[in-house]
Design goal:
signal, alpha/beta, glucan endo-1,3-beta-D-glucosidase, transmembrane helix, 14 strands, TIM Barrel, Glyco_hydro_17_plant, 380 residues
Length: 380
Amino acid sequence: MSYMAASSLLLLLFFSGSPIQILGLGVGINYGQIANNLPSPSRVAYLLKSLNVSRMKLYDADPNVLVTFSHTNVDFIIGLGNEYLPNMTDPIKARNWLQQRVQPHLPQTRITCITMGNEVFKTYDHQLWSNLLPAMQTVYNALVDLGLDKQVTVTSAHSLDILSISFPPSAGSFRQDLSEYLHGILNFHAEVKSPFLINAYPYFAYKDNPNEVPLDYVLFQPNQGTVDPITNLKYDNMLYAQVDAVYSAIKAMGHTDIKVRISETGWPSRGDDDEAGATPENAGLYNGNLLKRIEEKQSTPAKPNVPVDVYVFALFNENLKPGPASERNYGLYYPNGTPVYNIGVQGYLPGMVYTSPSTKIALSVVSNVLFIVIAYLISA
């Protein structure tokens, strides 16, 4: 098979399906991998390129992903699981981890942030609570020693369970039992200028009280909204109210110089019988309406000059996640690249090609051309 024939077949394989819609989403995407049926990182790279997504969040430092995305325009948040926090309080172990898992990928892969643990305060493990700040500080100091602190920052992601009051937003406050830990963490963020990350899910509020929480309010649909009686600011959706509640809680601890980012938000397309609202229609409305607002660079009522910064959860459904059915159905895409529902954007995931021995040589040429083209498209 000639090179031109292989190229023609390659283009036929790529574009014989639905047309690609290129659209900059303006959001980040969480790339969870608790599954046994996900596409390879190289195919995921092409999907993100077709969507014009340039920010991705991992829950680890998977070298296969980080190598695949070298020389691309994708900024990465990488993660250290809760189980690593005790070791990361040791300066030698923290430096070794950075030298082995982060430094080899820089600068060709754009790693911009490391999250230390995930929803640590949801564990009720007090030893883990005590390890969080020292681990953050130790890893940051190791970044400084390695000369990497200007390009890589350190933070952690928290569930909204850390709030004792979330409404009205202006009265937002952290739980009293967490104050001694959060004071130090907020001081750290202010000092190193890293963001405070929250995993915010209006879905949970609706699921727990479907008869009291208006569905339109949590789905960004037209609704009467609610007014903060202290500030008279009007909220037409719960997510923005949650963000402002966190800002208020941070301010109550003496800080007005820390940015809040949404490290996770989303809506499940399917759930168990007792998981109200988990449908493809609602998931499509939530994420579709959210993307429109992000494209408009909307801000929250209390922070009118700070556009909302969001990482949507998640890129794919993950079939091995434990818990209720909803946990396995947050993806925008099925692992085969088919959209779970319509949110107004369409990407493209190159298909897997299965063949007989008689055509292996021809498809080997096509495969080589495929990876050359993917590499070119990603680096363009």
